Amino acid sequence: MPDNKIMVINTGPILALIAATGNLKLLSKLYKQVIVTYEVKEEICIKGLKYFGVNEFQKATFLVQLKEPLS
User: Fold this and answer.
1) How far apart are CA 49 and CA 16, in angstroms?
2) In angstroms, what CA-CA distances link 15 with 18, 34, 51?
3) What is the pLDDT of residues 8-57, one digit of tens each?
């Protein structure tokens, strides 16, 4: 079990957690900080709110979303 550490998360676990629980609240309870790269954010949100998981992802205000692509 994590010790309230920082994690960087990918698209698959985000969508799987939304599918299983309907939100991402569990991440905020398990980790001190959850970082989402620019590329992951783009992959989830590229098609807008009508697609699976976008609304729940955007409601998870505790996520630290990077604003620029990784180099």
Assistant:
1) 17
2) 5, 15, 11
3) 999 999 999 999 999 999 999 999 999 999 999 999 999 888 899 999 99
- β-sheet with 64-65: strand ranges across: 6-9, 33-36, 64-65
Residues 6+ apart with CB under 8 A from 58: 45, 49
* Threshold 0.90, pTM exceeds: no
Residue written as token pair 């969508």: 15
Higher pLDDT, 9 or 4: 9
Phi and psi dihedrals of 2, rounded to 5?
-65, 150
First to last CA, the chain: 31
